């Protein structure tokens, strides 16, 4: 059993209370920081810890905070991205339901690090129960003196509010989320200026994922080196919440060291393949990553290792497919998601995704031709020229399908039917 | 239209906000909760309350999945059809619901009780196949679970006060 940091207080049937969180050292980091450390020191510790953003982009959290200039204007904002909406991703929900004060403390510390007085939790409507939990626990933290005006007599003010989204995947993108918070249509905006310079209401804004923020209290209590030592790989740091789903016996969230092998996650934690099936492929980090195959079955799951095979760790949402699952149909389903969720702002995404969906649908239903494969490859390349990262992410599984499973696609075309369907 | 008390409460909240339009989704959702959907009049009302153009409200209302511009049933059932639920049988779940309720996706039963909508990943992949009923998640579901749930909701709707399908997981 590896050390449990973020999920140490997880219980099967209820959230951890403030008292339980404190019994494990909760809010000690905050007390110490307010007494002993400047915001600049906090940013440096996070940089030294190599805390990389857990929302998928893996940008160093300390570095992002450092891009808020010392003389940047006020007010400054901290936004917690709790909008996870990518197929396969559910770790933020589990984290909030397990131990909400961990997130609240992480937000207070992150706000302190950039001298922000307001933190906003942007949460998807499907997580209404999590939103209510957070509102209640924010009130409890305020009553305990950890939040609000003059926190623990330090003269520091931080307030946190919960903002409910109306529900669209693009709201998870940083600039789109800022537009959404401002009551505008959540289209992405292309930097510069970056949100850390001109973000929400034109003011410096740092946006971090739930899991990233949850790591912060532990790093500040135990130190940067401790965090780095949690990982199994040299380049990795910390633990990672892997959300495993699909054809495994025990789907769920598991906290494991960064760099743990994929085979270990599937066999030792997720209980192996469902119904004794055979592993064919997985998406390692949500729907916008490419397929890993049997060849990668023992890969070390960290940002660098995945990058070295042309893939991404993303959110660590591992979706497992067995030998009997048609990957053309699975990819068609994924593209259906992306085509439905595209904001429609730019042509490659708006036009390209339905086009890809159409071709994949033809192939899956036995109407595909040999020209469809090169056509798909060509359109995928065009989608890299979209306005934001949505379209390149969307075509990742399609490109992975064509790179690793072209034979399976060709079999559909040659047999004029899906080889995985009986009829 | 809203009662005076509801209007006062919304207006107080808006006055307290640093930037009223940050409450756009909250105001639309509040008016929707009251009326069952966001009517044309409610779009105008949202715009007036927040100092926005009606067309700005409209472009939000039609963009967001959980804002309904047409009347919906008392129980809105979102059927997750994302890849993990698909692997675990969401097509069967959706098909069974359409058969049982006698409606297609996007439709409401004639008695106004149920609306069926497809939705992209609800974040319950560890409990696939899953659905939401008025934002509460249910899963993993079998056909028998689904029948029992629909029966329970029908019975609860007949009972005084009806049923809120629940809150916490």
Question: How would you describe what is shown here?
Answer:
The complex is a heterodimer of chains A (423) and B (169). Chain A is built from 17 helices and 9 strands. Chain A is of the alpha/beta class and 423 residues long. Chain A has 3 domains: 18-230, 3-Layer(aba) Sandwich (Rossmann fold), CATH 3.40.50.11540; 239-322, Ubiquitin-like (UB roll) (Roll), CATH 3.10.20; 327-415, NADH-ubiquinone oxidoreductase 51kDa subunit, iron-sulphur binding domain (de novo design (two linked rop proteins), Up-down Bundle). A 5-stranded mixed sheet of chain A has the order 6-5-9-7-8, sandwiched between helices. The model of chain A has no long low-confidence stretch (mean pLDDT 97). By secondary structure, chain B is α+β, with helices and mostly antiparallel strands. Chain B has 2 domains: 4-63, Arc Repressor Mutant, subunit A (Orthogonal Bundle), CATH 1.10.10; 75-158, Glutaredoxin, CATH 3.40.30.10. In chain B, 46% of the residues lie in helices and 11% in strands. In chain B, strands 2-1-3-4 form a 4-stranded mixed sheet, with helices on one face. Chain B is elongated, with a radius of gyration of 18 Å. The chains are: A alpha/beta (423), B alpha+beta (169). At the A-B interface, helix 7, strand 5, strand 9 and helix 13 of A face helix 2, helix 4 and helix 5 of B.
Produce the secondary structure layout.
The complex is a heterodimer of chains A (423) and B (169).
Chain A: H1 18-23, H2 28-36, H3 39-48, H4 61-66, E1 77-82, H5 91-98, H6 100-113, E2 118-123, H7 128-143, E3 159-164, H8 174-181, E4 205-209, H9 210-222, H10 224-229, E5 239-246, E6 252-257, H11 262-269, E7 279-283, E8 292-293, H12 303-308, E9 317-322, H13 327-341, H14 347-364, H15 372-382, H16 390-404, H17 406-415
Parallel strand pairs in A: 1-2, 1-4, 2-3, 5-9
Antiparallel strand pairs in A: 5-6, 7-8, 7-9
Helix pairs in contact in A: 2-9, 3-6, 5-6, 6-9, 13-14, 13-16, 14-15, 15-16
Chain B: H1 4-16, H2 24-35, H3 40-50, H4 54-61, E1 75-80, H5 83-87, H6 90-101, E2 114-119, E3 131-133, E4 136-138, H7 143-158
Parallel strand pairs in B: 1-2
Antiparallel strand pairs in B: 1-3, 3-4
Helix pairs in contact in B: 2-3, 3-4
Organism (chain B): Desulfococcus multivorans DSM 2059
Keywords (chain B): Iron, Iron-sulfur, Metal-binding, Ubiquinone
InterPro entries (chain B): NuoE_dom, NuoE_N, Thioredoxin-like_sf
């Amino acid at each position: 059993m590896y050390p449990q940091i973020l999920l140490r207080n997880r219980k099967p049937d209820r959230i951890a209370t403030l008292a339980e969180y404190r019994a494990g050292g909760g809010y000690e980091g905050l007390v110490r920081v307010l007494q002993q450390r400047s915001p600049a020191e906090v940013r440096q510790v996070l940089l030294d810890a190599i805390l990389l953003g857990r929302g998928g982009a893996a940008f160093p959290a300390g570095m992002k905070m450092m891009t808020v200039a010392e003389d940047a204007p006020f007010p400054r904002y901290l936004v917690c991205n709790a909008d996870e909406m990518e197929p396969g991703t559910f770790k933020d929900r589990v984290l909030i339901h397990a131990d909400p004060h961990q997130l609240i403390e992480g937000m207070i510390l992150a706000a302190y690090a950039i001298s922000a007085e307001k933190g906003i939790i942007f949460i998807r409507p499907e997580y209404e129960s999590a939103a209510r939990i957070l509102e209640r626990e924010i009130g409890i933290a305020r009553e305990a003196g950890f939040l609000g005006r003059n926190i623990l007599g330090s003269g520091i003010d931080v307030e946190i509010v919960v903002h409910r989204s109306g529900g669209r995947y693009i709201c998870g993108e940083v600039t789109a989320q800022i537009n959404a918070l401002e009551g505008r249509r959540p289209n992405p905006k292309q930097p510069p200026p970056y949100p850390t310079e001109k973000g929400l209401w034109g003011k410096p804004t740092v946006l971090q994922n739930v899991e990233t923020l949850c790591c912060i209290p532990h790093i500040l209590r135990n130190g940067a080196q401790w965090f780095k030592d949690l990982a199994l790989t040299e380049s990795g740091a910390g633990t990672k919440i892997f959300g495993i789903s699909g054809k495994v016996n025990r789907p769920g969230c598991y906290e494991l060291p960064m760099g743990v092998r994929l085979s270990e996650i599937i066999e030792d934690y997720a209980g192996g393949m469902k119904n004794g099936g055979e592993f064919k492929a997985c998406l390692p980090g949500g729907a916008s990553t490419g397929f890993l195959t049997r060849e990668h079955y023992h890969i070390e799951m960290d940002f660098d290792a995945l990058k070295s095979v042309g893939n991404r760790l993303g959110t660590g949402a591992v979706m497992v497919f067995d030998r009997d699952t048609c990957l053309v149909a699975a990819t068609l389903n994924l593209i259906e998601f992306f085509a439905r969720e595209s904001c429609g702002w730019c042509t490659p995404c708006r036009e390209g995704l339905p086009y890809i969906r159409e071709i994949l649908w033809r192939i899956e239903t036995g109407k595909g031709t040999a020209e469809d494969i090169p056509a798909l490859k060509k359109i995928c390349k065009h989608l890299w020229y979209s306005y934001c990262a949505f379209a390149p992410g969307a075509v990742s599984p399609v490109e992975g399908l064509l790179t690793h499973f072209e034979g399976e696609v060709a079999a559909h075309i040659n047999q004029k039917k899906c080889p995985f369907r009986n009829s | 239209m809203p009662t005076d008390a509801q209007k006062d409460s919304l207006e107080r909240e808006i006055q307290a906000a640093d930037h009223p339009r940050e409450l756009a989704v909250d105001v639309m959702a509040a008016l929707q909760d009251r009326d069952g959907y966001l009517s044309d009049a409610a779009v105008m009302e949202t715009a007036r309350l927040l100092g926005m153009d009606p067309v700005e409200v409209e472009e939000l209302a039609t963009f967001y999945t959980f804002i309904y511009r047409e009347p919906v049933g008392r129980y809105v059932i979102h059927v997750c059809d994302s890849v993990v639920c698909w692997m675990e049988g969401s097509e069967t779940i959706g098909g069974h619901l359409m058969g049982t309720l006698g409606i297609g996706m996007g439709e409401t039963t004639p008695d106004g009780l149920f609306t069926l909508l497809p939705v992209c990943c609800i974040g319950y992949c560890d409990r696939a196949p899953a659905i939401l009923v008025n934002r509460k998640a249910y899963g993993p579901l079998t056909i028998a679970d689904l029948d029992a749930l629909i029966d329970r909701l029908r019975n609860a709707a007949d009972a005084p006060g009806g049923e809120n399908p629940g809150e916490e997981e």
